[in-house]
Amino acid sequence: MLQDAPSRTAHRVAMHRAAHQLLDDPRIFDDPLAISISGLGAASERRAQAGRLDTRTARYLRAFIAVRSRYAEDQLAAAIGHGVRQYVVLGAGLDTYAYRRPHPADALRVFEVDHPATQLWKKERLAHASIPIPESLTFVPVDFEHQMLAAEMARAGFRTGQAAFFAWLGVVMYLTLEAATSTLAFIGSLPAGSGVTFDYALARNALTGAERMAAGALAARVARAGEPFRLFFEPAGLAGLLGGLGFGRLEDLGAAEINGRYFQDRTDGLHIGGGLAHLMTAWR
Description:
The chain is an alpha/beta fold. Helices cover 44% and strands 14% of the residues. It has 11 helices and 7 strands. A 7-stranded mixed beta sheet has the order 3-2-1-4-5-7-6, with helices on both faces.
């Protein structure tokens, strides 16, 4: 991303989440704040604006963006049920969990971690949409080029002696292996019961010919936006990496598993296409 500008990817993701609220029924992921925070125009124009995001390729992407948020929050609910009281959204963008589901601070503290420029833009979007910031939320601005996540989290009041759950969506594929491993190692150093959900891009040798073409087209689009893909994994290699970092229980979902769990028996045909990305949850 550009150093002093908010992430273009974060804005595109927010637009797809808003379009999901307007175009898809039933919704995979219900987010009543997605439309207002995204910056879509007047109510009378919103459906037409969202309709411009309704190409075949955009439907696949919209379905994946919706389902990864749903999946992460399903995993968060399980973590809360097991006593986790800290939730960290890495690369939060315009994520709305803390505002849709405000908890008392002693029940669940939410930390939103993002680049300072993107976080400033989000605060402006919240103010413009008249969305209040709950007391249980802490913003953690981190410039990963110059700051360490663990140090900034500690400064923000994160308790490393307590379990935490992390959502890390739409980020890993933009990182170097060193940066991704450093963050996973930090999460893996936390107490038992901690976990993380993230999505990752499959290595080319794990794709079919058609999937490689689709992956190349998507990579070209994000590169033109100044945020190129950098990191790709084979599932077995990623599982080995996570095991070495202290994660003992993994769930890795490909397209077939995701469609079977979340898109079964729909009449509108909404589903994720191809096998370009997986959803992973890793637990300590």
